[in-house]
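for the recovery benchmark. tokens below, seq after
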């Protein structure tokens, strides 16, 4: 093997090993979904490079030039430097005008879900040539790819606004392509070449993201969102649980309940949930109401049953009406039919769902369906399981056993003009 080829392979191997270290650092230092996928892709590249070094595969120059390390490097850099990144390589689904269901991988999800980022490390000259129609048969140009992001964004709303689409060019982009992307509504990052001479003679610096400048480009908070919230069964259980109404001062034989009791003493749940639902209309679908009543009747204590009746009188019950994208979810251990109906109804009504069922939210997201949710800690019905009061001092929640009614005691004021379907 030629010495120049040996040196090139060694440099590629070191680069891949460096990328793996960066991926590991992201995985341990931040809660970014999908970093494991990026690491697997880097490891696959590293395995191939090692096979070339060991002579298991005869190396060719074009193989070294076509390595995917540049793109993976750009992906990691964006995840490291873009503001509030929550996921990489996230799958999303959308439906075309012809009715086809399309799956799409979003390179980076930033701004806490409010921005989708398309990353490319291809040279500006190559991107421009493909845009002019000189690419391989069936090869999409960058404008078409961003158009898919826009289509998917319009059908995968966060808090009922489409995520903004960003495009990051690590090797720059021509002014003509950039202009069309801006017309499409995308936010463009990276050096914009004004002419061919500049493109041939200048190497662009790494893109720099400025959070304070990007905030004006984010989707506006939807002021038109109805002042209502969809309650999951887990939220209703928490609102009436004796644990949240002074019961955390008791001891429990069950380790799980004892742990919840300790959590309640350290961080009372009602103030957190009340702060979110205060002033909002409380929506509950038929399935959630039925399951809540069944659970209360089976394991609820007298005080918990009394609170449940008070709560039910203040709820607006609507028919089950899961959104169409919810119906595409494949059922699993974490995606139950009941949860699909409850979360899907909130999604169809375009209101945030309050829940402690974070497992469902994460599992749905991995299938490309991201829900607008308010997630809180879980609580259980505990009145029947209370033993002698523990030595721990009662939490602040014990001082007001009916405090949750303060947030929802106002009349719902429903009438025939209400926008939510009623039975």
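predicted aa per position
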């Amino acid at each position: 093997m030629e010495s120049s080829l040996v040196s090139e392979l060694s440099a590629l191997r070191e680069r891949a090993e460096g990328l793996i270290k960066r991926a590991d650092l992201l995985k341990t230092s931040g809660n970014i979904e999908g970093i494991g996928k990026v690491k697997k892709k880097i490891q696959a590249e590293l395995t191939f490079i090692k096979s070339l070094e060991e002579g298991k595969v005869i190396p060719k120059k074009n193989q070294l030039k076509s390595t995917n390390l540049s793109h993976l490097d750009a992906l990691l850099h964006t995840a490291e430097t873009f503001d509030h990144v929550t996921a990489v390589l996230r799958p999303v689904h959308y439906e075309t005008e012809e009715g086809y269901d399309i799956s799409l991988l979003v390179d980076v999800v930033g701004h806490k879900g409010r921005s989708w980022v398309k990353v490319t490390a291809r040279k500006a000259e190559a991107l421009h040539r493909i845009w002019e129609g000189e690419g391989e048969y069936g090869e999409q140009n960058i404008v078409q790819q961003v158009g898919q992001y826009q289509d998917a964004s319009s059908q995968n709303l966060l808090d009922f606004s489409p995520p903004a689409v960003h495009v990051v060019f690590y090797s720059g982009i021509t002014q003509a392509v950039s202009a069309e992307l801006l017309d499409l509504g995308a936010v463009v990052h990276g050096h914009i070449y004004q002419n061919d001479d500049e493109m041939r003679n200048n190497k662009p610096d790494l893109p720099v993201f400025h959070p304070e400048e990007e905030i004006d480009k984010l989707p506006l908070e939807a002021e038109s969102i109805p002042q209502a919230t969809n309650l999951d069964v887990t939220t209703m259980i928490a609102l009436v649980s004796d644990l949240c109404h002074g019961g955390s001062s008791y001891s429990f034989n069950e380790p799980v309940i004892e742990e919840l009791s300790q959590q309640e003493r350290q961080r009372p749940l009602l103030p957190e949930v009340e702060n979110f639902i205060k002033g909002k209309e409380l929506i509950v679908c038929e399935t959630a109401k039925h399951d809540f009543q069944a659970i209360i009747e089976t394991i609820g204590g007298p005080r918990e049953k009394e609170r449940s009746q008070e709560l039910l009188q203040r709820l607006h019950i609507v028919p089950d009406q899961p959104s169409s994208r919810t119906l595409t979810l494949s059922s699993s251990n974490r995606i139950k039919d009941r949860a699909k109906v409850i979360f899907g109804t909130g999604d169809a009504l375009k209101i945030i769902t309050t829940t402690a069922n974070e497992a469902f939210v994460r599992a749905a997201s991995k299938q490309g369906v991201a829900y607008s949710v308010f997630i809180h800690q879980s609580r259980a019905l505990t009145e029947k399981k209370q033993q002698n009061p523990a030595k721990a001092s009662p939490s602040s929640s014990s001082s007001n056993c009916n405090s949750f009614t303060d947030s929802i005691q106002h009349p719902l004021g429903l009438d025939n003009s209400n926008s939510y379907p009623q039975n």
